[in-house]
Design goal:
Layout: H1 2-14, H2 21-33, H3 35-48, H4 50-54, E1 61-73, E2 76-88, H5 93-159, H6 162-190, H7 193-260, H8 284-294, H9 296-318, E3 323-330, E4 332-333, E5 335-337, E6 340-342, E7 347-354, H10 361-430, H11 434-469
Antiparallel strand pairs: 1-2, 2-3, 2-4, 3-7, 5-6
Amino acid sequence: MRKLVIIALFCLGVQVPGLSQSLEEYLRIAAENNPELKAYFNEYLAAMEKVPQVGALPDPELSMGIFIQPMERFMGNQQADIQLMQTFPWFGMLKTQKDEASKMALARYELFRDARNSLFFQVKATWYELYRLEEEIRITEENLEILKQYERLALIRFQSPGTGGGSSSSGMSGNATMSSGNSTSSTSSTGGMGGSMNSGSTSKNSAKSNSSMNSSASMGEGKSGMSDVLRVRIEIKELENTLALLRDSRVPLVAEFNQLLNRNFDERVSPVDLLTDTALPLERLAILDSITQNNPLLKMLDAEEQAYEAQKKIARLEGRPMLGAGVNYIPFSPRIEDGMPMGGNDMVMPMVRLTIPIYRKKYNALQKEAELRQLAVQQRRENTVNQLSTQWSSAMRDLDDANRRTRLYREQTDLAKQTLNLLMTSYATDGKDFEEVLRIQQQLLDYQLSLITAIADQHTTIATLEKLAATEL
């Protein structure tokens, strides 16, 4: 019955409010199936079984001797000698031993709680890592589609170079007309055949010059358009390789997650819910107070200190006498003397036993041992508090860093999108700055991935604080 109550309380303790339904379900599965956690729990149950052992009286001693030939005595012929003895420890010894065993079992339970909290942290951290990976795959796929759109746009501009050269040709034609008009005016003012010849020669030279410039512009635009296509294809190949690596990285991560749940490594994992920015609901010093009050490692050391205090009391009580009470039963048979049966009445004799602990060195050593172990636990607790405080400080620094990065990359993402829109408008108009378009697109991808990493780091750091404080924040 006690085991059933303990397991029921354990299952109730697994419920974690405030988390997504799928993550809460995974935590429950991990608590029920993880073999290491079950080993810690069974060690606690084994320690609990120590309590009734040390709280019981020593077994009674029965000694019996039977004579092969009856011993002739005045009371008759003695057939046997039977003794039954029960030893009793000094007053309070059994209660103190049960208290010491209970404290040691409590220490094992706190160790089990620490193992459970560590398991929950590993499940949460792996879950958030899966979320980060899934988001990176999604964002990379979106950026890959955008680059393919850029490739189609660059191909269109490469295949239609006249769109950029038409305005230049018309401009050039206008300049040629104006030059021709000016030449005619000067000819009419001078008059004669020589002026007409000069005018014709000038018109031919202008037409030849315009034709050469238009040809050079078309060739330049073609080369530029083809280089744009090649550059975007290089970016596409690199992004496809990155995407393949991200998809391959999901396999070992899912296997690690299933290993924590003690399932098949290829078991399907439900999609990760969307994570948003999060903040601490408590003050920083309040979290530190919760850590120093609720951390299982500190509670384990407190239970061990109380157990060693009980051991000191046990050492003192062992230096007291032990009492024994019993009975001695001697059966007699009648002895025949001068034809008459003599005696034969059985004898019952109460007995008392008392141990005399005169060798005090071992009892003093037992008490000194318990005192030194208690001092060691106190020093270990002080060191553990320092370590937990350091971990709390590091977690707070990591959380502040994650919050700053979240704000930064959210702002950088918005600015990059605005810059990219302006550059795309410019490129659609005059076909310039395509290399800058690709650079800003890569920056935008980096900012989006960094934002996802920062959000995942936020939740992982809060999970670290929950592990240290042994409570849901």
